């Protein structure tokens, strides 16, 4: 009897589940982006801010537009929250396939304070952003015109009051939406006095053959010229890698291999000769550097950043991310530190380290740390500077970055060039009988991060229109953190490749 009741309950649940599945296939809503004529599709306002400072944004409702009868806030995903989205409903009604001509959204009397607020926004080229069926649209708030008056020029501030929406659709799907402001429908805001405003809008629908699956391509496409520039930069970077690789192979065959063969020969032939060059410091080359705890921390941080590069943030809630950090990353970091301390062994060097460090001879100025860092950083930066511009333009501008395949190729080339250049400079340092190569290899490898930060200065003042104290501190603060991370990551690559190189050459010779 009990089994029979369980079977009946299971059958009822199965039927209910099938009914829900069938209902979900015919329901038109925003989840599957499938609509029928007359369905309500909300138009959400996101943000507003000066066009020249894309990262300086404010809520749309901070401007004195008239709100709808009932303000609704869209439930954002974690990605939208992290991007600073604050989507709220507007007074514009854009129902599916419903056309409107000069429809009144709202009427409002602007106070002197609101007129002043709008005028300041127009003077700073404010734009606003909206979303319709998850598609972004933009428009400027107003315009400034120069009017000749009594032999002089007076600036007039105009607020756009009419919006024109043109929406393309295909079999129940919204494919594309464009927004235009009408230059005739404006209100002058030059004087600080109350003014009556009537906000109106027009909606037009047009059918298209474009597929719903490709509707995002409009926002992700790049100009053919930009693609040619990208591929030209990649080809130039690959050519640079081949040239550097050829030079290093030639150097290894003609110079380094000759030294190794000479030092690896029977010592009786060279017993009466004084050791010179990089062999003479074999007793000091594997001596731990100064501030070795700080050095180990820097190498560990750089290794972690290198492993995490082109990794994506998981979607979820902020609480989930906080839980991952509290109960995942932090305990693993602690356990890793304890395990490394307890299980760590001494450096197994191919040469015995002497008790007293060898005196380093006086070197020329160009063999100092700063000149070597300049030499080590300029070549890798020359490989990536074109891609750096497009990245900055997408992060701090209005561009969309979509060519991630090229970005991966450039990153691989950057790693290879950094390793090659650092190894070469490490050899020159050892050949000059300077055994303090640990920190030097780390600094030389990471110096590209300093060049990138220097390029940020150039980009901010010459290639962007950003200004203001907050925008300046925001830009250089964030880019400073990013470039510091790049410094740690590339510095780790430089040290580890130099360590492999030093082990190789000193393991190939006979040492006392």
UniProtKB/TrEMBL annotation:
Residues 1-28 form the signal peptide. It is found in: Endosome membrane; Golgi apparatus membrane. Keywords: Endosome, Golgi apparatus, Membrane, Signal, Transmembrane, Transmembrane helix. Its main location: membrane. GO terms for cellular component: endosome membrane; Golgi membrane. It comes from the Eukaryota. One of its GO terms (biological process) is protein localization to membrane. Belongs to the nonaspanin (TM9SF) (TC 9.A.2) family. PANTHER family: TRANSMEMBRANE 9 SUPERFAMILY MEMBER 4, TRANSMEMBRANE 9 SUPERFAMILY PROTEIN. This is Transmembrane 9 superfamily member. It comes from Rhododendron simsii.
